[in-house]
Amino acid sequence: MTVIYAARRILTMNPANPEATHVAVRGDRILGAGSLEELAGWGEYQLDTRFADKMLMPGLVEGHSHASEGAFWRYVYCGNSDRIDPDGKTWPGLKSLEDVIERLKVEDRVLTDDASPIGGWSLDPIYYGNVRFSRADFDRVSTTRPVGVRHASGHIMNVNTRALKLGGLLRPGINHPGVPLGEDGLPTGELKGPDAMEMVALHVGLDRKGIAADEPGLRQFSRLCVRQGVTTAADLANPLPPEAVEMMLRLTGETDFPVRIVSLRRFQGVTPRELIERSLELREMSTDRLRLGHVKIHADGSIQGFTARLRWPGYYNGAPNGLWYATPEQLQEIFELALEHDLLVHTHTNGDEATELTLDMLQRALFKFPRADHRFTLQHCQLADAAQFRRMKKLGVCVNLFSNHAYYWGDQHYEETVGPERAQGMNACATALREGVPLAIHSDAPVTPLGPFFTAWCAVNRLTPSGRVLGNAERISVEDALRTITLGAAYTLKLDDEIGSIETGKRADFTILEDDPTEIGGVNLKDVRIWGVVQGGRIFSAKAI
Amino acid sequence: MSSPSEVPVTVIGGYLGSGKTTLVNQLLRHANGLRLAVLVNEFGALPIDADLIESSDENVINIAGGCVCCSYGSDLIAALLDLQQVQPQPDHVLIEASGVALPDAIAQSVTLIIRYTIDGIIVVADSETIRNQGQDRYLADTIKHQLDAADIILLNKVDLPEPASLNETRQWLASEDADGHVIETENAAVPLPMVLGGHLNRIPKEIAYQTKHEIPHTEHNAMVIFIDQPVDPETVAQQLSDPKLDLIRTKGFVCGLDGQIYAVQTVGRRRTISVAPHTPTDTGKIVCIRYRYPIDQQAISEVIANCKKIALP
Questions:
Q1: How many degrees, rounded to 5, is the angle at CA A214 between CA A211 and CA A218?
Q2: Where are the domains of chain B?
Q3: Which range marks the domain in which residue A341 is found?
Q4: Shared domain check, A273 and A186
Q5: Which of A200, A424, B170, B246 is deepest in the core (most CB within 10 A)?
Q6: How confident is the model at residue B214 (pLDDT cuts 50, 70, 90)?
Q7: Cα distance between residue A423 and residue A420, in whole Å
Q8: Are B273 and B260 within 8 A, CB to CB?
């Protein structure tokens, strides 16, 4: 059966047919876009006018998120910016430590016993005068239950005295860079780095199991996708043990699961050869709504955590260079095996030295195993310069830049991590486009909120929290940004033949909007109102999800 | 000061292919009744020699003699906390770091868990490749950091390079000014006391002090000294770790000035002093080990005299 949807305006991202008023859908695929007259030629149809006053775009593609965003909403949101939860409730941003304590206290009153933990997330002291919080601050929430709040960066956690005690850290004599001590010789309650955090995380529920994308977490994530207009989302670094794959296949196979998940197998706890073998098995298990078989590797750490690998002259504040998370040999072996078996590899490279090493190793691997159209993608790649983008182009490499970073940590990058010059050239979308490198931009949710329009707004405006425009020359146009959050991201996932534009033969994935993103203007791009999505021909409204 | 029930932990670092896994297998093979728990980053290709394995599943390999091997992936702390649930507790934990990990950072994290104490950091270096790695544009700082962090550097595979090249590597290592004692090995064959010195009293003499006939290139000399009066254990440890003595390891018990019995232990410059878990029968006895050269009797006598002098009121 053919359904023709009438719309106020349809932006197709198909240059041969850029705009339309109607789109014809048969089953889960697009028959075509055009006028009603043009589409009537396909034969008998049913006209659906429910979107007659709405805008249609290709379903948005988030090219780098983590389904664990859904799991975080089990904990108390403590961020500085407004954020929408899976139920559609907007949690107002907290403007002071006092606000944070108050919100955690509400949770304290809801819990009936005295010992249950309270976990929070997305705290960012940068906005509160960059003061260091202490356990005394969080003791005001409770002294009987463990309280812990993860920072937005994911690298730090603040806890109360009870949590420290349960984690075995309320003792003198601790000598660890991640556990600052107070004048009393006891930890202040700030825990930095995964090891220090993990000591206490279990007791506040924020350990790795607590924040993994389990069944309820994945369900919540899928609801967030509908609210943000996302019809395909990459779950970029999943260990994908068999039981998780089984759960994901079952969930995504439900008739009303509203989003396509592309889950990449993370290189962790196995050898490169085992990684490739497992990925080949996973590839065979793929379905339309669960795409498996791609590989994710981490080359280095993060810039704001000073664990990214930078080329000379390194960090602006003189911090020592960061950490490698894989050896050059491992990168090269994985690239070679992946090229040999036609597997797609996405590599996390935050610092420019990590980008350089990754390109070096890929160049060697390509010499041994030449393969056209491999689409290996550099993820984050925040500090790449023009020469590196030119190399990417020559090597057939795609890039997915972390545009949201400017809005969250742009001032910190300017003042502390990389300094003004390099901060203004970070996440160089304009350079990537100019040099012809296939481009995507991302949220890395839950690190920053899922929402491609917000990410597009960041790439268009490059505003920092203090209102600084961080590198005017790297701003991109609204049109480029809209293409990047649809076709651009689809390309990096090798899905541009199926999704990313509204044209004959592609999946019937649409984002339904109340506002026209080309009319609302770049400054307001993040405020585009989203009605919901059509995914594989199925209609999901944000209100009803 | 550490508490009596602590389990000693040795961190084994070094770049890919240097021989960390071979070392682990050597230690397991010669464990001789010590229950070792080995934490590896990944169950790569054969983390444990097949003939040592009793049984295995996805995350744990059970090894002959009550030893176990677990993989920790990206979460060492969780693995160490899990290990505390294992009964009986291991006598010693070995952590095999990944090729680019910084072993001192791992050691520092281990100290967050109250029931573990760091016995030492061993970094294995491939004598054929370490110089190149130490000058690699991407790896140099990581390799140097690893070497700097070592209490003991195992310069491994010394049978492979040409003598001239090996000499250059020795000189390079010396010029890098790493503080760790360098022990040269083939196949990472190192006598147990060098790396698991915390259990000197439990390792039978013939194994502890086997000579170069069994394990080539790793000859070492041991002697036992006696301190027959109360002394300050800090001073004893300080004196014994003095570079002029060139001792790789010392371990023993002394009576403190407060009458308490203390276990004193040094690994290179690393000093550990703890209250003795029980009243040892051999208080005042300290085993000292030096690599390759005889222990300097006169220097040792001076050290003993110094310790006693400082003890006097």
A1: 100
A2: 7-187, 220-311
A3: 215-538
A4: no
A5: A200
A6: very low
A7: 5
A8: no
Chain A contact for B132 (CB, 8 A cutoff)? no
Could you tell me if A197 and A223 lie in one domain?
no
The answer to whether residue A406 scores a pLDDT higher than 70 is yes
B135 interfaces chain A, CB cutoff of 8 Å: no
Which distant-in-sequence residues (6+ apart) come within 8 Å of A351 by Cβ?
A300, A303, A308, A309, A310, A311, A322, A382, A383
Cβ-defined contact of A175 to B77 (cutoff 8 Å): no
For the CA atoms of chain A, what is the radius of gyration? Answer: 23
Single-letter amino acid, residue A80: N
pLDDT at residue A49, rounded to an integer = 98
Partnered with residue A441 across adjacent β-strands are A401
Q: A182 and A290 in one domain?
A: no
The answer to whether residues A306 and A435 belong to one domain is yes
What does the pLDDT read at residue B45? 64
* Amino acid type, A210: G
Q: Which of A67, A39, A33, A57 is nearest to A219 (CA)?
A: A67
pLDDT band at B47 (very low <50, low <70, confident <90, very high): confident
Nearest to B77 among A195, A270, A321 (CB): A195
A170 and chain B: CB distance < 8 Å anywhere? no
- In-domain check, residue A34: no
A306 and A243 inside one domain = yes
Which residues in A lie closer than 8 A to residue B17 (C-beta atoms)? 329
Question: What is the rounded CA–CA span in Å between residue B183 and residue A216?
Answer: 54
Contacts of A198 in chain B (CB under 8 A): 75, 77-78
From CA A507, how far away is CA A509, in angstroms rounded? 6
B78–A207 CB contact, under 8 Å: yes
Q: What superfamily would CATH give domain B220-311?
A: CobW-like, C-terminal domain (3.30.1220.10)
Strand partners, B272: B265
Q: Structure tokens of B12?
A: 């084994």
Q: For the domain B7-187, what is the CATH code?
A: 3.40.50.300
Q: What is the CATH number of the domain that holds A137?
A: 3.10.310.70
CB A121 within 8 A of CB A72: yes
Domain's final residue, options A148, A169, A204: A204
Q: Find out whether A427 and A402 touch, Cβ atoms under 8 Å.
A: yes
A 204-263 residues with CB below 8 A of B?
207-208, 239
- pLDDT at residue A57, as a whole number: 98
User: Distance from A266 to chain B by nearest Cα, in Å?
Assistant: 11
- The candidate with the shortest Cα–Cα distance to A65, out of A380, A377, A408, A446, is A446
- C-alpha distance from residue A221 to each of A88, A231, A445 (Å): 12, 12, 10
What is the per-residue pLDDT for B313?
Answer: 53
Nearest CA in chain A to B136: A328
- Identify the domain boundary among A181, A204, A227: A204
Provide the domain count of chain A: 2
Inter-chain residue contact B109 with A321, CB threshold 8 Å: no
Closest CA to A415 of A468, A373, A452: A468
Q: What is the mean pLDDT of residues B239-247?
A: 88
Within an 8 Å CB–CB cutoff, is residue A457 touching chain B? no
